[in-house]
Design goal:
The complex is a heterodimer of chains A (390) and B (378).
Chain A (H helix, E strand, L loop, with lengths): L1 E8 L9 H16 L5 E6 L2 E6 L6 H8 L5 E10 L3 H11 L1 H6 L2 E8 L8 H15 L4 E2 L6 E7 L4 E4 L3 E5 L8 E5 L5 H11 L3 E8 L6 H15 L5 E7 L1 H10 L5 H19 L4 E3 L12 H7 L7 E2 L7 H10 L3 H4 L21 H8 L4 H10 L2 E5 L2
Parallel strand pairs in A: 5-6, 5-7, 10-11, 10-13, 11-12, 13-14
Antiparallel strand pairs in A: 1-3, 1-4, 2-3, 4-8, 4-9, 7-8, 12-15
Chain B lengths: L3 E2 L10 H12 L10 H21 L6 E4 L2 H16 L5 E5 L4 H12 L3 E5 L9 H7 L4 E7 L14 H7 L5 E5 L11 H4 L3 E5 L10 E5 L25 H13 L2 H20 L4 E3 L9 E6 L4 H10 L2 E2 L13 H5 L4 H4 L2 E5 L6 H17 L6
Parallel strand pairs in B: 1-11, 3-4, 3-5, 5-6, 6-7
Antiparallel strand pairs in B: 2-8, 7-8, 9-10, 10-12
Helix pairs in contact in B: 1-8, 2-8, 3-4, 9-13
The chains are: A alpha/beta (390), B alpha/beta (378).
């Protein structure tokens, strides 16, 4: 039996004149994600994108998994495709949805007829198919209000489509329609979730990771690559930039009051990230900060970190509890990677008693003893970069 | 840059002859040791030869050697197999608080299913005395499991005095020795130690990973952990990994305990003398520990930092135990070593391939690190 996938596009239908751009981008994203799985013909009509496989050996479970991770899709469904002939349609419905029909108690048939030349009208098609199914499955009764399963029959120009229920899509906006931003990623639970959330709003990502060998492990870098790979499975390819951070952390540790270590470190991260972001045509920075989660994420601390950059800083997790963040990280499969126990730049020099209410003037004063420009330029000169595909 | 490998308690470099043997079996003698034809016999002969070599080294009967996939499986088989076979005789298990995780975690699992496990407390150097065993072993004790050499600090436990305790207390206990870190580094005589079970591993003695062995006294019965064919008296069924087993045989035959010990003792003494001259360093290993392992702490530098720093100089050591992957060492904590020394502890472990030059390079690396790395507390 030949199968196809029907994709209902999401929010982008609202976007007026830009709609074509959004749809083109979405189709491009879909093509890129599914092309390794086989060849498809892709049609776009009436807010529905149809994927028609060109060969028979395509694993539809794999295709659906990939589709479920593409932003800009509200819902999608698998459908069987058959001749526009009532007896074939009925038999296809029985066979294609057999498992679901056998285990359900109630059902209903909905029909749509875009081929107006088809001999029967929609209500008649539904009635005919419904009668046939009732006859074949004695476990089923009709319930038009709250059925366990809805059989949808669509009569198109050349074929009929038969499908069961649709699956939820990833929502959001097609990645690549919303510009580019740079995410600061440490290896913890939060930053991959923040990346995911901004990618969902259509934004392409660049990832920036700060490494401090020998204080941090080469495995921390490997871990970040795995995390980016997961995020990238929702987004486009992501460029990962690794910033050598050892010298800066050593200088802060030696030259500044211990309780201000984290704040000053984060200000350095912001400044360096801003330079990298601008070089990569990014319009904003993204962090995984959540208000009050740790000392450097109090409102006072953020008020001290923010002035270090003139770029907008997106903090999509700012109002979320840890539990809520963990829930998403499990959903996007980054949690188990995030909890691998390697030292990263954020944990290695954590002071015992960090200041939870730092004052900006004191921070600036402490910083002034360091050669800011020299340290930052040095770090930027020595960045390494690689492209990661999910 | 020359590679300086000082992490031999984690694993060792595989010897050339051992590699050749494994390749020979994979390439030519690839038969299933259980097959009745000549190709099977050829492989079986290699397996039996390895069994013979190990039995001779341990001074036991070759029918008492069971090959496993390594030290962890041997320890699991011994602990669970003994507990299940003995559970009608009593409920108590006596061990030490510093066993390797493959024994420790197995015992934790047995505790969940109702066994009472007594973990004897070591002194600061990782020693547990015969008297402590005497005090705990009783008629209700069904298993005594003790490591011969501790893998983190190298302390040598009095395994040759435990049989006497079990006999004196008229205990039915089976006696298991985890000899993974001791095997090939100090003499192990079954008829002297009189264990019922004893585990060993191949990759700690220049053999390949993925193979180990359990000695089981022929007069004692344990319950299997895996079920399948008739191989190895059904104690450990499954097609024997003939290439790895034959290679283990070669690795064992290559060991010269005495001359290696002499060489490593000299290296240890040389290292300890140098370490004692560095004020930031405190030794964690005791003076009577096995010379193959030297554990020490570097003041205010996290073990992982020092480890990566040394690695960037091509010097490879361990922080605590490699199996714990970055977690603070349970064993060192149990010894009563203060937390800040636990998190900064480095383990150096030798093999016959090491030299004084390796130690000079290590010391130079340590001094360099102490000078240049930022301390936790300045």
């Amino acid at each position: 039996m030949k199968e196809i996938i029907l994709i209902k596009i999401g929010e982008i239908v609202l976007k007026g004149l830009n709609r074509k751009n959004f749809e083109d981008k979405l189709i491009k994203n879909i093509k890129r994600k599914i092309s390794p799985l086989g060849e498809f013909e892709i049609k776009n009509q009436q807010s529905t994108i149809t994927l028609i496989p060109k060969n028979d050996d395509i694993d539809f479970d794999d295709v659906c998994y990939k589709i479920s991770k593409i932003f800009g899709i509200a819902a999608f469904s698998r459908a069987a495709i058959c001749e526009k002939e009532m007896s074939t349609i009925k038999e296809t419905a029985r066979e294609y949805l057999y498992k679901r029909l056998k285990t359900s108690k109630t059902f209903k048939v909905e029909s749509k007829r875009s081929d107006k030349k088809f001999s029967l009208k929609s209500p008649q098609i539904s009635a005919d198919v419904g009668e046939y199914i009732l006859e074949k499955f004695n476990n089923l009764t009709v319930d038009v209000h709250n059925p366990d399963i809805i059989i949808t029959v669509e009569i198109r120009d050349s074929f009929a489509y038969i499908r069961g229920e649709s699956l939820p899509g990833a929502g959001g906006i097609p990645v690549g329609t919303g510009g580019k931003a740079a995410v600061l990623i440490s290896g913890g639970i939060d930053s991959p979730v923040a990346s995911f959330m901004i990618a969902k709003r259509g934004v392409d990502l660049v990832a920036i990771h700060f490494a401090s060998p020998p204080y941090t492990s080469p495995r921390a870098e490997e871990k970040v690559k795995l995390l980016i790979e997961k995020v990238s499975s929702f987004a486009n390819r992501i460029e990962l930039i690794i910033v050598p951070f050892t010298k800066i952390q050593e200088e802060i540790k030696r030259g500044c009051p211990d309780e201000l270590f984290t704040i000053i470190m984060r200000r350095f991260m912001m400044r360096i990230s801003e330079v990298i972001a601008k070089n990569h045509q990014c319009f904003a920075l993204i962090t995984g900060e959540s208000l009050g989660q740790v000392a450097s994420q109090t409102i006072e601390a953020i008020a001290c970190t923010d002035p270090a950059t003139s770029m907008p800083v997106f903090r999509p997790l700012i109002g979320m509890d840890k539990d809520e963040i963990v829930l998403i990280s499990r959903k996007i499969e980054t949690f188990d990677i995030s909890i691998l126990p390697y030292e990263d730049c954020c944990t290695v020099f954590t002071p015992k008693h960090p200041k939870t209410k730092p004052v900006l003037s004191a921070v600036v004063e402490a910083e002034s003893k360091l050669s800011l420009e020299g340290l930052i330029n040095d770090a930027i000169l020595n960045i390494k970069s690689q492209i990661i595909y999910g | 840059m020359r590679e300086i490998y000082l992490d031999n308690s984690a694993t060792t470099q595989v010897s050339e002859k051992t590699i050749e043997k494994a390749v020979e079996l994979m390439r030519q003698k690839y038969g299933n040791p259980s097959s009745l034809h000549a190709k099977g016999l050829e492989a079986q002969n290699e397996v039996e030869n390895a069994r013979k070599i190990i039995a001779k080294t341990l001074n036991c009967d070759q029918t008492e050697i069971y090959f496993t996939s390594g030290g962890t499986e041997a320890n699991n088989l011994a602990v669970f197999g003994a507990a299940k076979a003995m559970k009608k005789r009593g409920n108590k298990i006596v061990t030490t608080a510093i066993e390797h995780s493959s024994v420790y975690e197995s015992l934790k699992e047995l505790e969940n299913s109702g066994f009472e496990v007594v973990y004897l407390k070591p002194d600061i150097f990782g020693m547990v005395t015969k008297e402590q065993f005497m005090e705990e072993i009783d008629e209700n004790t069904i298993l005594v499991t003790v490591m011969m050499v501790n893998n983190e600090v190298g302390s040598i436990l009095p395994v040759d005095q435990i049989r006497e305790c079990i006999d004196l207390k008229k205990s039915p206990a089976l006696f298991h020795v985890d000899a993974v870190q001791a095997f090939g580094k100090m003499p192990i005589n079954i008829s002297k130690i009189k264990p019922d079970l004893l585990s060993l591993s191949s990759h700690k003695i220049h053999g390949p990973k993925g193979v180990g062995a359990l000695f089981k006294s022929k007069s004692k019965r344990i319950y299997p952990r895996a079920f399948g064919g008739e191989q190895q008296d059904k104690v450990r069924p499954g097609t024997e990994s003939a290439p790895l087993i034959a290679a283990l045989g070669v690795a064992v035959s290559e060991i010269d305990i005495e001359s290696n010990y002499k060489k490593v003792l000299e290296l240890r003494n040389y290292l300890v003398k140098k370490l004692n001259g560095i004020s930031e360093i405190t030794l964690n290993s005791g003076p009577d520990s096995l010379p193959y392992i030297v554990n020490f702490s570097v003041e205010n530098i996290k073990a992982e930092t020092m480890l990566h720093f040394l690695a960037s100089h091509n010097i490879y050591v361990s922080g605590g135990s490699a199996c714990a992957k970055g977690k603070a060492s349970r064993v060192l904590k149990k010894l009563g070593i203060p937390d800040e020394r636990v998190t900064s502890s480095i383990r150096v472990s030798f093999s016959k391939y090491n030299s004084k030059e390796d130690i000079d390079a290590l010391i130079e690396g340590l001094l360099d690190g102490i000078k240049s790395l930022v301390k936790i507390k300045e």
